[in-house]
Amino acid sequence: MSEIDSQKPRARQRPARREPSRSRLRGRAGAIAAVVLALLAVAAVVAYSLHAHLPFGLNAGSPALSRSTGPTGPTGPTTPKSTRTVSVAILGSLSAPAARSAAVPYGSGGALLLGGYDAAGAETDTIENFQSATTTAAGVLPVPEASAVAALLSQNVYVFGGPSSTIYELSNASFTDVGSLPAPTADAAVATVADTAYVIGGYTGTAELNTIVAYTPGSTAQTVATLPVTLRYAAAAAFGGQVYIIGGSTAGVPSATVYRFDPATKTVAVFATLPHARDRESAATLGGLIYVIGGADATGQRSRAIYAINPSSGGVRLAGVLPAPLADAAAVPGNGEIIIAGGTNEGLAAVATVYAVTPVSP
Q1: How many domains is the chain partitioned into structurally?
Q2: N or C of the chain: less Cβ packing under 10 Å?
Q3: Can you give the three-state secondary structure of the chain, one letter per residue?
């Protein structure tokens, strides 16, 4: 349902001089009750739709990306356009479905996608360069990897973790092993301040992590701070020299908390709260705001919501909606837009779609 029509005023009628019969009164009462029940049913459907998501997973036999509607769930009613501050459009597609790829801004407002899970749930070694709606092959990783993170430092691409603790540098189309994280680190978040990447939380394969590890090219990766809790499947973005750590899960339970990490003081503090707890979301900074895109709730169900976090005030609001529920996507800022690539849909399948999230003029 795209919208709910407002009630139309009833035509005024001059009342009859005689009193209405009891049967007539009962008829009117029954009609009113039917209307009330219908409205309650609509409200129930809307309430459910606003929070409905679908389970996470990678399944080659799952249905393709659907075009359902709704502001915070897969099937809810569309929010009035006056409340939205971003629009979403399809830019193109990857050469094949991919989820949990590492990604960095690259080229002329494009993105470089590294590894990820394919449609069958297997780790891949592919590197793809997405530029101007076109995807081209750009090499291969030293080993197949998924759930790694990447950062662009001093014009070179660095890939952190995945199943291992290795840090790779991609320079001149070749990879070099340049160090290690303190532990194997998959499902982490990453954000860059100046020429330092901060790898946040993650999973060793047996335990969740609560560490914030700093890496600057030419130096050794080291833990510089700890989170109040272990955190896996979080998202992170940098703004104004600060790192914002969004959502994620602790012991399998998604969080609505947004932390702010100050690299200068090495301190972590609670900054804001999302309207709904989620993990596996994506985040990127654009136009002075941090956008949180998609994700999954405590049951693994997907969201279509795009939230905007104001780093100055801590305010969080719904800024727009995705065409379909999405989690595990890569997100990087482009030329006046955020590029959202791949991920998993509400049918548990990896997808190849590439979206552009663009601010809307008031």
Answers
A1: 1
A2: C
A3: CCCCCCCCCCCCCCCCCCCCCHHHHHHHHHHHHHHHHHHHHHHHHHHHHHHCCCCCCCCCCCCCCCCCCCCCCCCCCCCCHHHCCEEEEEEEECCCCCECCEEEEECCCEEEEECCECCCCCEEEEEEEEECCEEEEEEEEEEEECCCEEEEECCEEEEECCCCCEEEEEECCEEEEEEECCCCCECCEEEEECCEEEEECCECCCCECCEEEEECCCCCCEEEEECCCCCECCEEEEECCEEEEECCEECCEEEEEEEEEECCCCEEEEEEEEEEEEECCEEEEECCEEEEECCECCCCCEEEEEEEECCCCCCEEEEEEEEEEEECCEEEECCCCEEEECCECCCCCECCEEEEEEECCC
